[in-house]
Write a structure and sequence with these properties.
four-stranded antiparallel β-sheet, Rossmann fold, globular, 20% strand, 298 residues, single chain, alpha/beta, 39% helix, 4 domains, six-stranded parallel β-sheet
Length: 298
């Protein structure tokens, strides 16, 4: 990271494998930049990732879309003492990344791209991060500091290298993969496991590839939680979806003035007089969302 902070290059590439301590490295870099009089701005493709970057590294952050909009509307001035940190840069499409680099180059600002080409790829036309790494080189964080058991870093490395057979075998051997005979049984097992963890106040998520599957799992989980008396009596239907106090919700759209950006939260209050929902996020922040917002949460 010393090179990233002191090279003077307009674009720096930092490759960090999962668990390599990227937030800690970026926090140290931020301290060095700020001490030297630089303004540091962070961004990421997803709002939740931007918020995590801000929390973990202390870098004021927003979505890449918002940062680009602020630059182009002259709300975020750039200069030769500005550093733009792009987290999960391997997921950013080439066009968006080119826009950001063009703005930075014109203003003499520095862009630091942080990511891992071995993780999730771009949704839009991509390859910029991988290409810049090949052309410019860059710093690499290669030591896994997150997993405590000896087999886990090896399994992750196999997964990253595309050796899925070896990775899955390791996870199965250590009971990290659960197999069921039918799709229905998989869904039942998944929901039951989530409910058990939820009742024990653990922070867990169910993940599915298709929206239809997400809706189905959420309906099953909500029905199970309601059957156990864990939802409040107050309920309202918005855009065809029921909401009750104590529901677990996820913001589908970013609303920065309201403090909602990819927020996971608990529904604390339904106020029919003010026509709003009160949410308590997983980091204990309280925000309100008006009924009029189209499908504000799910």
């Amino acid at each position: 990271m010393r090179r990233v902070c002191s090279s003077g290059d307009g674009v720096e590439v930092v490759v960090g494998i999962a668990g390599s301590g990227k937030p800690y490295a970026l926090a140290a870099a931020r301290d060095a930049w700020v001490t030297s009089g630089f303004t540091v701005v962070g961004c990421s493709l997803a709002a939740r990732a931007a918020k995590q970057l801000e929390q973990d590294a202390g870098i004021p952050s927003a979505t890449l879309t918002r940062v680009l909009g602020d630059i182009e509307r002259h709300r975020l001035p750039l200069g030769d003492t500005t550093v733009l940190v792009v987290d999960e840069a391997g997921m950013v499409g080439t066009r968006a990344l080119a826009r950001l680099v063009d703005h930075a180059t014109a203003a003499g600002a520095k862009v630091v791209l942080v990511g891992d080409p071995g993780q999730l790829p771009e949704i839009d036309a991509g390859g910029a991060f991988r290409g810049l790494r090949a052309r410019l080189g860059g710093a690499e964080l290669t030591e896994n500091r997150r997993q405590s058991k000896a087999w886990e870093p090896r399994a992750l490395q196999s997964l990253r290298a595309g050796d899925t057979d070896d990775a899955i075998d390791a996870y199965v051997d250590h009971e990290r993969v659960h197999v069921a005979p039918t799709e229905q049984a998989v869904r039942d097992d998944l929901v039951n496991a989530w409910v058990r963890s939820y009742l024990e106040h653990e922070d867990v998520l169910m993940v599915a590839a298709r929206l239809a599957d997400v809706d189905d799992l959420n309906r099953r989980a909500r029905a199970s939680v309601r059957a156990r008396g864990r939802l409040g009596r107050d309920e309202i239907v918005l855009a065809g979806r029921p909401y009750a106090t104590c529901d677990q919700v996820l913001a589908l759209r970013n609303d920065y003035p309201a403090g909602v950006h990819g927020t996971r939260a608990t529904l604390e209050q339904i106020d029919t007089t003010r026509q709003q929902l009160t949410l308590r996020s997983t980091d204990s922040e309280t925000v309100t969302v008006p009924f009029a917002t189209r499908r504000p949460v799910t």
